[in-house]
Amino acid sequence: MTNTSQQKSIFPIIITCADGLEQPLKTELQNLDITADIKQTGRLSADLTLSQIYQICLWSRVASRVLLPLGKKNINTEYDIAEQLYTFAKSIAWTKVFDVKQTFAIRLSLDKRVQANQQFAMLRVKDAIADQFNEKLGTRPNVDKNPDFHIFATVNDKQAEIYLDLSGTSLHRRGYRVAMTDAPLKENLASALLYSVDFHRTDYDVLIDPMCGSGTLLIEALLMKADYAVGLDKADNQFGFYGWQHHDDELWQSLIADATQRFHSQLERMSQGKMPAVFGFDMDAKAVRATHKNLMASGLTPIINKITLQQRSLATLNLALKKQVNGWQQPLIITNPPYGERLGEEELIKPLYQGFGKRLQQLFANSTAPVILGVLASKVEQADTLPIVEPKTLRCHNGAITVYFRQGLLNKTSEKSLIERFEKREIQVEEGQDFINRLQKNLGNLKKLAKKQQVTNLRVYDADLPDFKVAVDIYGNFVHVQEYFAPKSIPPETAKKRFNLALHGIREVLQANREQVFIKTRAKQSGNEQYEKKGNIGKFYVVSEPTAHNQQALFFTNFTDYLDTGLFLDHRSMRKIIAENARGKNVLNLFAYTCTASVHAGLGGAKSVTSVDLSQNYLDWGRKNFSLNGLPELPNYQFIAHDVFDWIKQNTEQYDVIFIDPPTFSNSKKFHGTFDVQRDHVALINRAMNRLTTDGVLYFSNNFTKFELDKQISERYSVVEITAQTIGFDYDLKKPIHQSWAIYHKQINKNAVK
After folding, report:
1. Which end of the chain has a smaller Cβ tally under 10 Å, C or N?
2. What's the whole-number mean pLDDT along residues 664-686?
């Protein structure tokens, strides 16, 4: 027991933390009115009173240990490390540190640059302490797994240090973690991230974790908001200062009593409604259950009914929150996405971050509230995709994994698409005026419809004038221009001149720079040339399109490497029909290409989605589209690289919705060597109908202009042509770019399609 004067004694103390958390720890200590200096990686130093030492042990959420230095000594790595440690440890006056009747334990940290047997070196430190007691007192203290004194030694390539560990066990451990998920977030790291976004002093009225895992971020935030001293979990017997000669139990107990009272008073206020709205979502039901159990174990039961916990993927995040957004004043979104362990494959992680950021922009587009976003990532380039104004990055570790915390103000404004920005104006282009006038007229007619239907990807010109044979497609902020191959009757120099005039006109009318305009020549294709790689630039751009239930689907497009971009604009309406009919259904997408229709089905709430295509490359593209939309990589979303005819013959599963959009012609390894849609569609549809449930629907579409549906199909099944419903407002219904049908089993009488 110490007296009052001893309470005022000053002790030189080292406070440790995980590498990278030095600044958050310093912030936390400042919040406790404690001044500390960052000494080196993972260590802060401070001269502290006994009361301040207790405050850190009781209140610090970020610190790992509180150490009292007992000595340091230079080390020569060319000599025996263990024997140098023995000599060093023997020089410390251990009989003045603790009594022979008290127990002790040694913990040793060896720098990776030091070559030594850690176990033996630790044993030599123990021997030094025991030998000193034997020499002075004729007896020695015992070593124990739960000792009175924790001795901590560190050795790097230059010096050794020995400390008395006043914290006893690591301060990061909490008592609430009763349920776990894969790769859980360390509690002290979670608190450090919260300090990084000033959670301790900012009056956030909303707290959202869209990928909450076992709930560590939410629980640490709520415990901080509830003024809970995390050291109360260990207050009975787990600290290392109880046997210390300077320990003042009366002072310690008064601090515990004060902390307990503060927690109960604040928790009562929070239960009465003085707390932020809290939302925790995760795609894994197990994670949501784990969060609930951990919340109960954390002592937050009085407010648990005020916390919204739901199993929900990122795909439906906006649906859960959009009705409440405009009432928020200061939201905080903070999360630890599955950066490998839960998601499974690294190439899908960056699209997850990219899509997450874009969905938040959509969610808060009309909100005036400043939104703070904080996201953990395993690679900086993942975090770089997040739309954050003047971002700040904290490099730290979650266990053995190096991670990066990116945080800052959410950039809610995204650049308007070219169709939204278009305004008709006077443009004079010699010899190209007809094209300019027609393009402006088309854009003027399409702009209102595009705004009404929230469409930003559309065709705005398609060889309307005989002298300008090009197709002009807008994809958000980019223009995809396809030059139709000129007939032999047109001199090459004339064709080139007209095309250059068209390009100039496109840039002028849309006010687009050269980097926004991509050019291709479209000639008659053979085999699979339409889908083969033309270049190797590998640049992908994200565009969005409306889908069912007022959602926006996100897609990766590539304007350089292939003839097609990865998103067929003419099937926009068809994809929406699939989404509207997908809820709770098993959906099959044959000739899936980049799985855009599959994404719509997933966003529409399909029970399962199976995508089949011969190209693994396109299916991988499709998987990235799924990740971009926050659709989890789960068994109910399958991507099968296989010849469609062969697969559908072997497969025995039944599907409620089947979509077939085959190529006009392609080389196939399994079906007569080639596939011809006119010749082979009967066999294809028959095989697919064998996989269709009794009350299911098969949507069949193709772009062959001379295609005729065989009478056998109409005789065998109930067939409804839906071409008019699937041709968008930006295409000419009188000259449909594709034809499409809804096909049912005969006993189901269908007169219309939604």
Report:
1. C
2. 83
